[in-house]
Amino acid sequence: MFGFVGANGAGKTTTMRIVMGVLEADSGEVLWQGRPMTFEDRRGFGYMPEERGLYQKMRVAEQIEYFGRLHGMSPAAARTATHDLLERLDLTERAGDPIEALSLGNQQRVQLAVALVHEPTLLILDEPFSGLDPIAVDALAGVLTERRAAGVPVIFSSHQLDLVERMCDSVGIISAGRMVAAGPVDEVRAAEGRRQLKVVVRGAVPGWADDLPAEITHQNGVHVLRAAEADDQAILRAAMSAGTVEHFGWEQPTLTEIFREAVA
């Protein structure tokens, strides 16, 4: 599972549209299994665009089945797959409802079912969690995790970086059309120069850390010191001499912090 993140206008949606053949690239190429991607390859993909592509007057089950037929499924196979997805996505009771009668969260579930109905070889989802409540997010995340476990690669873009950090194996951060950080989530967070030493000291007098290569904030008698690559033992000794050390340790930055740094 690959999380694709970047500021608005960075190029996430454009990249996904190029992969799906909706747009043509000015340069470069898209490879699948080590070779140039073909139309037949794309027919096997599941795609959830940023602008949801559902027919508002069509009923839920009819819609999912229809898209299955567009992917070449037989009527019986499309019907069976639709039934299974309605059950898995908790939409069985809404099967006969028109799309326009559904909440945003349920419409998102139908859109995901449309992307999954033909058992895709790859899932590409553009902001699938946008606007969803926590329960709907958990439901969609559970289905995507199942697809990953079944061997289906999943690429999705999101501004919810805590969700990307929790769900994804790898991440790519794009800024102004260029990838500025990419790799396994743990490796991106642990890259050289990114970790910080955090020290929390209570009861220290102001100015105790003025000579240390660090940033310090304080409130209500508690001082929080943060430093990049530094002599942690020297800082610890200074902190112990200044007051009561309540926390001491190296911390990796969150994806949110890395994102802010990367796009600045």
From TrEMBL:
GO-annotated cellular components: plasma membrane
Domain ABC transporter, chain residue ranges per copy: 2-201
Localisation per UniProt entry: Cell membrane
Lipid bilayer topology: Peripheral membrane protein
Protein's name in the database: ABC transporter ATP-binding protein
Chief place where the protein resides: membrane
Highest taxon listed in the record's lineage: Bacteria
Gene Ontology process terms (BP): response to antibiotic
Organism lineage: Bacteria, Bacillati, Actinomycetota, Actinomycetes, Streptosporangiales
Keywords (A to Z) from UniProt: Antibiotic resistance, ATP-binding, Nucleotide-binding, Transport
